[in-house]
Structure prediction request, 308 residues.
Amino acid sequence: MQRSLRPLLWTALVLALLILGSSATLRLSANGIGCSPWPSCYGMVETANQVQGTSLIKALRLAHRLTATIFAVLALVVVAIGWRAWARPARLVSLVMLIVTVLLAWVGLYTPSPLPAVTVVNVLGGLALVGFTAALLTASKPPRVGPAPEGQFVRRALWGLLAILALQAAVGAMISARLAASACAVDCQQLRWSADAAALLHPLVVGRVDVLSSDTTAGQTLHWLHRILGAALLVVVSTMVYVRRARSGSALSWLTRALAATFSIGVVGAIWDGQLLTTIAHVLMAGLTAAALGAALIIALRPRADSP
Prediction:
């Protein structure tokens, strides 16, 4: 039963990544990431209208909806087949995955929206689907025979990583929702904290960064917060690897690699500002980081088979 479930879960994982990537492409291209001349064309209504009218974006929008529908059906099938064989942690993951799927379908009715909360839900929901699917894929493997489950340190550290990753992704979504991607196009070498940061980070306050703040550098606050949280992720996962002496093929090792790749692409994006493909690659690598984190969490939470 579990073996027959794995091809379905691999398909669901690919679909989840496609949903995440296509959603990011539709949103970022409409905002003007990658437009020319950069950054003067960024955030302009004319830019959004021009992008939305292209055949490529229309096809991508249709593909996104089709992919999301197939994923929803597949998720129901997977949960129905795997429910009885899964342990309690996997069952909880599957239930939350279905709830998030329904939530994203409902939010999709109001997308695109000027309300930042809609963008945040779409971004976090897309990452969550990838992480949940990877967790169920890992749970479908037979339990390892060996030592006891991971200790409290690893479990707490993984939950901490999850919280930081969610917060960082939410800040990244706010950069997009506030049309602040070009805030570092001219100068972003020094950390600046805007007095209007609370308004900029409030997901229920509508408005561009230049509308909510008279400070011309206010958008840089969002960029720096995103970078600081990324650095915090690296510190936490590096500490975990050092303490646990993680092997090269372990879940922690894969998590470290995915996180390092995500951070590296983010650095490239910060150096070469306004590159659509780089930004989409950053989003997709964040999805793979969520997948690695989901796998690591389910391994830490589930019991292992007793040693012979």
Remarks:
- The two ends are 24 Å apart (CA to CA).
- DSSP finds eleven helices and no strands in the chain.
- The chain has a mean pLDDT of 89.
